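ENTRY TYPE: paired fold submission
RECORD: A
CONTENT: sequence, then structure tokens
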Amino acid sequence: MTIRNSNISGIILSGGQGRRVKDQDKGLLCFQDRMLIEQQVEWLRPQVSSMMISANRNIEKYSRFGVPVLSDIHPAFQGPLEGVLQGVKNCKTEWLFVLPVDVPGLPVDTISQMMEQCPQFCSSAYLGSTVRSHYLLMLINKKLEPALESYIRSGERRVRGFLNQSDACEIKLGITEDKFTNLNYLSDYQ
């Protein structure tokens, strides 16, 4: 199935606590001499028709990028699916691509390749490297909003659990594991 760029929005997830980076906001940390959020906005913008940022603090700083900034409805950092849910709720297109702010190494054509490979029957898909699955790098259809909301409200938080429940497809594009590296620690930013 080919999904057109005009029918896909993107959301950058930057709403976590940053516990592993001494409670700092990962998106605002510098990596390769630029803020991580700046790099991710630049990477995502040409690949989607519209975009959003999920953030739970420093809203004014994220607002400088000229895209809607969404916050979780439930406070206390309930996990990334809360940000995904807000993205799906506010999405004006049929599809939403989810990009964690701390994964800056993906090839520039990742989304277009993923859209080309997504099977017709899938309403959600996630990327896999040559080594393992990366559940949070997902493409999700807006029609899954009720199921996602129900899953979260039942107390579930695991991304993989939701994707399994929604019969998600794993898409492997031959991207090596090093391109999926998460910048989880302050030492990763130096």
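RECORD: B
CONTENT: sequence, then structure tokens
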Amino acid sequence: MNRYHHNAVPLVVPAVCIALVPWVTGLGSEPIRIGILGCDTSHATAFAKIINNPSAEGPLADVQVVAAFPGGSPDLPSSWDRVAEYTAELRQMGILIVDSIDALIHQVDAVLLESVDGRPHLAQARPVLISGKPIFIDKPVAGTLEEAVEIFDLAEEHKTPCFSSSALRFSKAIYNARQNPDIGDILGCAAYSPCPLEPHHPDLFWYGVHGVETLYTIMGPGCEKVMRVQTDGTEHVVGVWNDGRIGSFRGMRSGTHGYGALVYGTKSITHIDKFDGYDPLVIEIARFFKTGHPPVSSAETLEIFAFMTASDESKRQAGIPVSVPSVLAKARAKIDAQRAAHRQEQ
């Protein structure tokens, strides 16, 4: 089977350029067979319904969810108290439920990693990445920045198409903000989203990632440093980009919750507050499975998670500025040291 290599450049390491080659899934006019890894989130059933809709058109007409592996995290109530319900719903849709990740890989051409818990994502993604079959990893891409780096390193090593994104990125007004002639050039952005905390994950990984993804979709990568203030009900993170622009994320745990951004442009100040649901993301995933071209680079995703990790460090240091590139470089150095130690043990 031919494979694609995702054309991603890590933020703090030299670029590696590998030519793309055609991706082949299925035979003839047969649809691309998709497997769901992790049935402990409503995304599993919602995405399956969109993909398997008999009236699906465009990229969705060429894909089909055919199998799923339940997974589940026993120490996370929002996982174990939902996995049985969503697994049963997928089974009722005619989707085969398998008893292992290996069995899933052998049944499908591509994988949706939907486990709500980011901590097992590296272990769950590893055999898929080694297989070379394209994989979409739902938020958060991993439970730590180091594990996120390892996931994309595995994708690089095995030339496996891989991407991760919040559905907020592909809402039309958010996705098109940088090309909106009524806004003009983006001078700054104040994004916001709900931000409940989960004790097993870094503060913003669990849900704040939606608002941070919105911020990056509008501003683009290139954040140099972040400063964070936290209260019981609110997160406020301010980032300074390498061209002097300022972007911020406000995470809400009290009062009215919503998703959106205030975008400061050369032609207008525009409020964006419309979420277009899951369909735009799922369409992009289907297109990705067909082409092998990730719509979001690994470099940008890693910077998003470095931004959130740096915000944790800023909080620990009473809100002082923390360098985003240095946090990512530190994660990379930690992984390299672990690999070197492992080689010495062998």
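NOTES ON RECORD B: The CA atoms of residues 83 and 186 lie 42 Å apart. The chain is about 35% helix and 20% strand.
STATUS: closed
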